[in-house]
Amino acid sequence: MQKYHIRLTDNERQELKKSLYSKKYSMESKTHANILLNMDENRNTKLPAMKKIAAHCGVSEVTLWKVRKKFAEHGLKAVLSRKKRDVPARQPKVTGEVEAHIIAVCCSTPPEGRSRWTMQMIADKIVLDNVIDSISDETVRRVLKKRNLSHI
User: Fold this and answer.
1) Each residue of 96-133: pLDDT tens digit?
2) Whole-angstrom Cα distance, residue 121 to residue 125?
3) Contact indicator for 122, 140 with CB cutoff of 8 Å
4) Residue from 82, 83, 102 nearest 94 by CA
């Protein structure tokens, strides 16, 4: 006795078939689409056993159950796309305050004996001013590039 049933409409079936050949979907989404197409109860043919579907799709039976449940509870869109994180896995190191300090140092007069600031010198100055614990010259370059600033 199945708790979750998969009965696809013609439009859903058509969208799943399109997603199999589309470049905008990940391999995981294509696998989920293939699972749903094989588990559709509205097909005219008799449904194969879960083990056969799992072997055909190259997944475990647990994955079949998870996809079936997700489709039944949340719909087709949830199965084909991943949930976007509310909070990033890692907070960005460079905040607006740090960017402002980088830009201020870049626009200030360079140290004596220098004609301009180098990326490494800006990074070192930011660390010496206790704005941030550590920062690479590449991060400084990206911040300046993002703001279309040239420190020439």
Assistant:
1) 999 999 999 999 999 999 999 999 999 999 999 999 99
2) 6
3) yes
4) 102
